[in-house]
Amino acid sequence: MTTKASLFAAGGFMGALMGDHDWATTSLGSPQHWPQSLVTLMRVMLNSRQPMFIAWGPDRTLVYNDSYAPMLGARHPAALGRPFFETWPEVRDEVGALMDRVFAGEPVHMDDLQLTLHRNGYPEEAHFSFSYTPVPGDDGRTVGLFCACTETTRQVLTERQAASERQRQQALLQQMPGFVAVLGGRKHVFEYVNDAYIAVAGQRDYIGRPVRDVFPELRDQGFFELLDRVYATGEAFAARTVPIRFTDGDDRYLDFLYQPIRDEAGAVTGIFVGGYEVTEQVRSRAALAESESRYRTLFETIDVGFCIIAMKFDETNRAIDYRITEANPAFERQTGANVTGRWVSEFAPNLEPQWLETYGRVALTGQPAHLENWAEVFGRWFDVRALRVGDPAAHRVAIFFTDISERKRMEEALRVLNATLEQQVSERTAERDLLATIVERTDAMVMAADLDYDILAINKANADEFERIYGVRPKVGDNMLGLLADQPEHQAQVRAGWGRGLAGEEVTIIEDYGDPARVRPYYEISFRTLRNERGERIGCYQFVTDVTERLRDQAELAQAQEALRQSQKLEAVGQLTGGVAHDFNNLLTIIRSSVDFLRRPDLAEERKGRYLDAVSDTVERAAKLTGQLLAFARRQALKPEVFDVGQRVSGIADMLDTVTGARVRVLAEVPDEPCFIRADLSQFETALVNMAVNARDAMDGEGTLTLRLVRGAALPAIRGHAGSDQAFAAVSLIDTGAGIPPERLGRIFEPFFTTKEVGKGTGLGLSQVFGFAKQSGGDVDVRSTVGEGATFTLYLPEVTPEELPASASRPDHGMAPLGAGQCVLVVEDNVGVGQFATQILEDLGYSPTWAANAEEALDRLGRTGNGFDLVFSDVVMPGMGGMALAKELQRRLPGLPVVLASGYSHVLAQEGTHGFELLHKPYSAEQLGRILHQVLGLQSGHRSV
């Protein structure tokens, strides 16, 4: 038994405090009844100098040692024996979740947890490093938490202050106008660079790298040696206008200082680098010298006359003479006189007074002057600019002048020409006014607007019509959208139409506009871009015609033509129905006659076999006939497979002689390389035969039919549909017939559309080709010139050889393999077909069970499959169909195989089989046996239980 004296004896102040504490008033109870784990941890805690505490029991009762007490501040010693969050309510959000993890058995450790504590009566930031250890009870569940912690607040705040000081120093260095870097150690490793340094030396990987690695291009330029000397001697080095060449190859110039950095002992530990780039100053000085040289060269070579004169005034400040102190060679060329150093009164005593007055005013006032004047003494016109230079008291004026005598002559000629042009402009203005009158009086509606929908021009017809359909009359300067502000639906329509024109689109549209409560006619509207004299787009204009009556007439004509087409279709359907009925009656005659003979008991075995073969062959022919009808209607469920289209084209070409006749020559052009597509092989061959028959009829039974295969063709844009750059196999049938008129090309693939005589065709052949191409992910195109034949091209997507199935062999047409008692669930709503299928499966060695619908089948299968090895289901059934059943079974029992059977299903025709095996009705026992054997063989070892 644990006594207070033994437990708290070595616990210091907290031990003594705990020894005097009335533990019976806490959830821990008397120490004599404490569990051994709590006693052990209590002794560890009280004998440790590291801050520790224990939180025990559901209310997390708090006990702690002497080192932890200062962390409590004013809450010590009242916190002893109290619930943890009663003592520390402000940390519940941060610590509560951590303690929950510990009491769930997970230890927690954190190197730095920041908390805001109120332990001294005010909020203060505190940081702790601690570990929470779960303490298990006798039953293994966590009953307590043991924490060893260290308060790191002072350390964190000290580091934060140091970091702030470093940032402040770096900010000061960053703000310095010159470049700054700090290098450390004998290898001069970069410790800091400011943005100005990077701007000078370029963006590089600086920090932590020696200067020789960062600037390999500075080798042999002396900078590394200077750094070594400063570090070794401790003496600073400064230099001005030092050339340096970086990797860009341009010479730059620097003023810089290398200042040694010392530690407390005075030893050099690094170098401070500072300075300025003075490249521009160096270049400016060089440019100034070069400019002075150029000025002298320019002064000597320019064509503009230049001179500097010194003015002479009388006592009333009236200009009476000037002396030319300096003149360039052009002066002599322009004036024909060499007068440098002479007074103007000497070489031009009769110079017009205005020259002296102008130059004198410039010299006295400093205001520049610009004038064009005739100088009689030189016999020329001059353009002159004069400005004062130098000391105003010296009365010096710089003069630039150009001989403009030729320009003056041309201006006079231009004046005469302008007088002639004014007459021409007047005549053209009259023409423009006439055109404006025509636009204003025409019935066509015309309006122009700028890019903000403001009306620039509008004729009367347009204004009248706008008012008629919207109830508001527009005028030049109005904003179209503003006029319709209270008619938002019409405003949006106007914005959409005009927006296309104002965006630069030149387009013609036909659309109805206006308020239906008033009138809403149809208009043909043409938008054209409006540009200014510089070719810039500034708006657009429209020509509008009311086409309501024209569209009504066209609609009536289209209705009449559609009625005619419908009657033609009905006639074709009647012909097709009669032909189909005739063919089926023939087939039924064979079957009925054979069955009648088979009922005779005295029929010989040889004749019985003959009649059975006749029935079987007739069923195959009937199935083929229904398949062709479905293909014509594009309702056939395709069975795509990968095959070499070149081989099939060659094979079809060899057999087309029997279709086209002896007078049609059939050629095949197939590349040597294989070309693979994925499509229904039977439908592909049927499509080629249909196009061949069409070509034969177009050639009237005589000509040349070429079958051509092109690999890797791009799909062009056909009938308004976008093309594709992916690889397509292009199979073309090219005939030498009469060709197809352009007006018939757009309808050539319509069902029941035919140009043949009555009784010569139903118009379904090319429709089958179109439907097959679309269902196979491709398209069909026709190109024709009347008198030169036609080319029909079937485009089907190519596939790579890797997409070939693992086994492409044809199914064995021998006897069907027998089953071995596998359980098959037959789902068929037709009683006769269901019973017959069940009987066939029994004869084939299977154990069948029949369900009359999908719902019954799901009940029989349950959640585990109830021992069934396969489901054989019809597709078209009342309620849930076979495809929906297969998908549901795929979800519930993914290991249970499903085989579907159908004579026709629009679901299969539109969506495909979704990966399920499909058996076409009518089917034979051999076909059923083979597909079941194949599916069960693939699923062997995966039977659903």
Automatic annotation (TrEMBL):
Q: Which InterPro entries did the record assign?
A: CheY-like_superfamily, HATPase_C_sf, HATPase_dom, His_kinase_dom, HisK_dim/P_dom, HisK_dim/P_sf, PAS, PAS-assoc_C
One Pfam family here = HATPase_c
Q: Which GO terms describe its molecular function?
A: phosphorelay sensor kinase activity
Q: Where is the PAC domain?
A: 235-290
Give the Histidine kinase domain ranges. 579-800
Catalytic activity reported: ATP + protein L-histidine = ADP + protein N-phospho-L-histidine
Q: In terms of domain of life, where is this protein from?
A: Bacteria
Tell me which residues make up the Response regulatory domain: 823-936
Listed EC numbers: 2.7.13.3
Cleaved signal peptide residues = none
Keywords of the record: Kinase, Phosphoprotein, Transferase
* 4-aspartylphosphate: modified positions: 874
- Return the protein name: histidine kinase
Lineage of producing organism = Bacteria, Pseudomonadati, Pseudomonadota, Alphaproteobacteria, Hyphomicrobiales
